[in-house]
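User: Predict the complex with adenosine-5'-triphosphate.
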Amino acid sequence: MNENDILKALRKVQEPDLKNDLVSLNMVNDIIIDGNKVSFTVVLTTPACPLKDKIKNDCINAIKLVNKDAEVTIDFTSNTTSLRTDKKDILKGVKNIIAVVSGKGGVGKSTVASNLALAIAAGGAKVGLMDADIYGPSVHIMFGVRGERPVMQDVNGKGMIVPLERYGIKLMSIGLLVDEKQAVVWRGPMVSSAIRQFVSDVDWGDLDYLIIDMPPGTGDIHLTIVQTVPVTGVIVVTTPQLVALADAKKGIAMFSQAGLKVPVIGLVENMSYFTPKELPDAKYYIFGKEGGQKLASEFDIPFLGEIPLVQSIREGGDVGIPVMMSDDEISKNAFIEFSDNAIRGIAMRNAQLPATEVSAVF
Ligand SMILES: Nc1ncnc2c1ncn2[C@@H]1O[C@H](COP(=O)(O)OP(=O)(O)OP(=O)(O)O)[C@@H](O)[C@H]1O
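Assistant: Here is the predicted structure with adenosine-5'-triphosphate placed in the model:
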């Protein structure tokens, strides 16, 4: 066996999402061959790649076809893909900016954004969570950092706000900077300037993903964000009720419109079914069934998952310990499945679509 044999074999191994082989995608490095022993590194598109095991098995099988006695050792590393083509004056070290949106209030957008951030970070990625809901911040409550204040730090001669860090996630929320009742009466320009500060005056450092918890609906803050940073993609949260689905359509339409061109990574349905604590295997579809899936197929966007309505999710948010940090395996699995689909969607978006440009349309 020589290096060419190995490369030839690995050319037959597909990255399942990107639909191309590992060698063409430049995902194979450091091939070392010593008799029957072969080792190499596969560079994944994200540290949290859920396809790692499949890729590993496919590589071993492909090499065994060349030499059935081969002893294959595969190391995995990652280089999260990023399509930033802007000058990176702001959010310099951030590879992907993901906005979590909802048409309607109260559908659990902040809950979903918080647990998504934690689920992605659990896979090894560096993640930040920015609460852009200036009028109704909740991230500081959900992460149990209410009342804490971030400090300032000098970065290259500029005073920058250091985001708080909890459960490995860098956090920023207006609830950490001012009294919660204060921002409620702010006028539009103050809100826009707070949002700009969140991206330009906060030292986010190097992140694979910055998740932005957007306010509900489609308003000024959304426009400020898309005018300020190149949003990699949008995740839409809905609940199964018809009224929520109708509003979710507006959210999808806003980001898909010609002027914005921010791709929709997919749609997640929250509170899909009720599972009582004492009956963990039961699923009661009290708000209707598969509304989110139907909406996703109507708009031809990926359906990213169903999150159950369970008491522990609500309790976790209230006490500042998100359910991803609890031992509720059923809820955690739902969030992990959703997050796996979301990061695969982001990697596919980066492979298939042009970079998002900061919008100057409005
Ligand atoms: N899957 C769920 N199971 C149980 N409770 C949930 C679930 N998702 C959200 N909740 C609860 O519903 C309430 C609203 O959730 P959340 O604040 O995340 O919604 P939101 O859409 O961000 O709201 P807003 O419109 O105010 O921004 C919270 O008390 C939260 O704990």
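The mean pLDDT is 91.
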